[in-house]
Amino acid sequence: MSDFFGIFQNKILVTCFVSYFTAQLLKILIAVVKERRLDFRLMFASGGMPSSHSSTVMTLFMMSGLRTGWTSELTAVTLVLAVIIMYDATGVRRAAGEQAKVLNEIVEMVEHRRMVTGEKLKELLGHTPLQVVAGAALGVVIALISHYFV
Predict the structure, then answer these.
(1) Element (H, E) at 94
(2) What pLDDT score does 118 carry?
(3) Distance linking the first and last C-alpha atoms of the chain
(4) 127 within 8 A of 90, measured Cβ to Cβ
(5) Confidence category of residue 39, pLDDT binned at 50, 70, 90
(6) HSE (side-chain half, CA atoms, 13 Å) at 41
(7) Residue 43: pLDDT band by 50, 70, 90 thresholds?
């Protein structure tokens, strides 16, 4: 069992967690600055600026490249994973969020005409390309800091 907890000494894994939580904390700080509200629920929300998915997978890719070499199989796998996740964040998940927004508007219109109530669908699912690029840049910076300074 003690070997299991040794996983928390894995620098790649720990740096990825740091990257994810940094991106999530930045979402809270950005909401405070832009919207003048403190919303700790953003710590566990998907969508928003910056993309924590992009930050995490870019950290994974960078740390893999820096630690195992840029030509290693692990680095190749992590790059493919990063590209798929970032593409999905701006494509499929964003489209699902846009559809949820339209469906919520339809439900709202129906509620006004009849006494129908329903739970709102989550609209903030995906990311804009800028949010993905910002998350990816954050992931690169965190990986470089972790590799060279920590």
Answers:
(1) helix 92-113
(2) 58
(3) 27
(4) yes
(5) confident
(6) 3
(7) confident
Express the helix, strand and coil content of the chain in percent, nearest 5 each: 75, 0, 25
- Tracing tokens 């590209």 back to the chain, one arrives at 83
DSSP state of 82: H
CA distance 117 to 120: 9
**Token pair belonging to 38:** 């403190």
pTM as predicted: 0.77
Q: Helix 52-68 vs helix 11-35: angle between axes, to the nearest 10 degrees?
A: 150
Q: Which residues contact 66 (CB under 8 A, 6 or more apart)?
A: 143, 144, 147
129 and 54 Cβ atoms separated by less than 8 Å: no
Summarised one tens digit per residue, pLDDT across range 75-109 is 999 999 999 999 888 876 666 666 666 666 766 76
Q: Give the list of residues 6+ apart from residue 86 with CB closer than 8 angstroms, or none.
A: 51, 53, 54, 57, 132, 136
Q: Residue 58 pLDDT more than 80? A: yes
Kindly report each contact of residues 97-101 with a partner whose C-beta sits within 8 Å and lies 24 or more positions away, as own/partner. 97/47, 97/122, 97/123, 97/124, 97/125, 97/126, 98/123, 100/125
